[in-house]
Amino acid sequence: MSDVRILTISGSLRRDSHNTRLLREAERLDPGGVMFDHFSGLGKLPLFNEDEEHPAPPAVVDLRDRVRRADAVLIATPEYNSGIPGGLKNALDWLSRGEMPLAHKPTAIIGASPGAFGTVRAQTSLRRVLHKMNVNVLRHPEFLLGHAHTHFDANGCLPADSPTVQLLTTVLDGLVDLVEEHRAKLAAA
Ligand SMILES: Cc1cc2nc3c(=O)[nH]c(=O)nc-3n(C[C@H](O)[C@H](O)[C@H](O)COP(=O)(O)O)c2cc1C
User: Fold this and answer.
1) Contact call for residues 169 and 29 (beta carbons, < 8 A)
2) What was the pLDDT predicted at 138?
3) Number of domains in the chain
4) If you take atom 21 of ligand 1, which residue's CA is the nearest one?
5) What is the three-class DSSP state of 10?
């Protein structure tokens, strides 16, 4: 397996976000042959407006470039009012236009919430949006972290031997496999 570049996107703008922490943990796992790029510009994207698509705003050009350069995308979504945060939906709306760099891209979803259900409703909603955008979403395993605040230590880290870290590792492995399948399909085409 040659190098895999994974772009991570957190749906939260919050400084101490559990979802951003999950992505940091994923980046620390270092599965070998994986490079990470973290997109933290969600809050700088203008609200999607069809009147302002051409030329695309610079922040949108940056996001599209980084998605295009990535072999895979890892999205960590909070749950807001049973759905995905507006900032994340706004980014996806921008990515659904133009050359649509997220279409067919191997993508995994994870999510953390202090509540019991660990973002299940947000993830269901996100899967529907990504399905409409023709994104190649990893189906198994699902990663839902409920009672998220009880899992991180005082430094905002997960214990290295925790089931949560094991599950995160399985998600990353699945995502890398999806990239491999995608490359094989492209090579055979
Ligand atoms: C506007 C708003 C709506 C929320 N709605 C839900 C919800 O529907 N379900 C849920 O589990 N948590 C909900 N929460 C709590 C979030 O899960 C919690 O704030 C979480 O920490 C956000 O993710 P983050 O830590 O990555 O910022 C809501 C929080 C906010 C601010």
Assistant:
1) yes
2) 98
3) 1
4) 113
5) strand
